[in-house]
Amino acid sequence: MAENNFILGMADLLVAPAPAKLVTLGLGSCIGLVVFDSFARIAGMAHIMLPDSRGRLGAEKIGKFADTAVPSLIEEMLKRGATRPHLKAKIAGGAQMFALPGASVDFLTVGAKNVKETTTRLARLGVALVASDTGGNKGRTIEFSTSNWMLKIKTLGKGVREI
Amino acid sequence: MDNTTFNAMQLDAIREVGNIGTGNAATALSKMLSCKTMMDVPAVEFVSIYELSQHYGDPMDTVAAVFVRSVGGFMCSLIFIQPEEESHLMVELLLKQQFGSKIPFDEIPDYMSDSALTEVGNIVLSSFLNAINLLLGTQHQISVPGVAHDMLSSVLDVVASVFGQMGEMALLIKTELKVESADTVKDVRGNIILIPDPDALEVLLKKLKVM
Questions:
Q1: Best residue in A27, A50, A65, A98 for a mutation probing chain B (most B CBs within 10 Å)
Q2: Which string of b and e fits B191-210 if b means at least 16 CB within 10 Å?
Q3: What is the mean pLDDT of chain B?
Q4: Inter-chain residue contact B68 with A100, CB threshold 8 Å
């Protein structure tokens, strides 16, 4: 059976049953978070932009912030038939696109903060982070396929790898 | 922040700041490359941060970007962004200026082309900032530039994350420069994106006495 393709935009959050391919294009400091349950054959992805909603819950897209996206994605997975002990997570992204020698600019390190907040939230909710490819200074395009539950990561000039 | 945040006079003032900055940047670029440089009238636009990556072209296009941070009376960041291929043409133009004869891009070592690109970006963005700060009567300091070659969408994450902390809209002061030269197969374009810090626009509008 052909896979259904889903392309997620900034701050999108989506859950789909197999067969599905979940794609996010050109992640810089943003995080692509995948949560899946290979027994229930279902997967979800969120395109997280910033670590903390600072209480602005409900007003904005739920996938935008790590503190709202992680619990929402897990909740949506459970609602759609996943079971908690079988949930696994993979993440990619969180690069620092620009580095300024000798200057510390808070928002340029947002990628690292996104990674930290996302992994902390996953741990707190008891979801195993089974693979990750984060940091560095290059953008990533990611594809998660329910055919093999692998996350394919494309980086400019560095080719493709699967985690 | 959206298009009701500022009145028509304030938007005009912001556009004029972009105009003055770009004029100065275009002059600097023209002198540096000894080429005719054209500029567009700057546009002030409110764009959803969720659609930002499509706003400047195909999100997957490879671009070359130079980033600087300016601190002082008007706190902001600036990005000079070009299609990767056109940045190569610009580096060729600059090195021809320096060495007197054209060196094909493929024969220029990476460190040298990046250095040249950074230098052009630095001059363009510094000229832009000098003009703005002169207009406002403010002091400023500019960081060493950072450079990236990557997907447009990844580069624009920087812009989205700054505006994303405040809301869901980005205010873009977008201006295009175009270098015309008989030495290149096509015109070389570059976009300057001005990213004011939160509250920096209020400072700017107060200085210009339209707030």
A1: A98
A2: bbbbbbbeebbebbbebbeb
A3: 87
A4: yes
A23 vs B: CB within 8 A: no
Question: Given its phi and psi angles, is residue A119 left (phi above 0), alpha (psi -120 to 50 degrees) or beta?
Answer: alpha
Q: What is the pTM (predicted TM-score) of this model?
A: 0.89
Backbone phi and psi for residue A4, each to the nearest 5 degrees, phi listed first: -85, 130
Q: Determine the Cα–Cα distance for residues A65 and A151; give it in Å rounded to an integer.
A: 21
pLDDT tens-digit readout, B50-107? 888 888 889 999 999 999 999 888 888 899 999 999 899 888 888 888 888 788 888 8
Query: Which of A50, A60, A103 comes nearest B69 by C-beta?
Result: A103
Residue type, A12: D
Rounded distance between C-alpha atoms, residue B35 and residue B67, angstroms? 23
> What residues of A are annotated to the active site?
30
Which candidate from B67, B152, B164 shows the least CB-CB separation from A98?
B67
Peptide bond into A19 cis (omega under 30): yes
Closest residue to A26, CB basis, from B59, B69, B146: B59
Reported ipTM exceeds the 0.85 cut: yes
* B54 Cβ contact list (under 8 Å, min separation 6): none
* Span B170-201, pLDDT tens digits: 888 888 888 887 776 678 888 888 888 878 88
Residue B151 at interface with chain A, using a CB cutoff of 8 Å: yes
Computed over its alpha carbons, how large is the radius of gyration of chain B? Answer: 17
Q: Which residue of B has its CA nearest to A138?
A: B150
Cβ-defined contact of A50 to B162 (cutoff 8 Å) = no
Tell me what pLDDT residue A59 has.
Answer: 65
The DSSP secondary structure of A57-73, one letter per residue, reads TTTS-TTSBHHHHHHHH
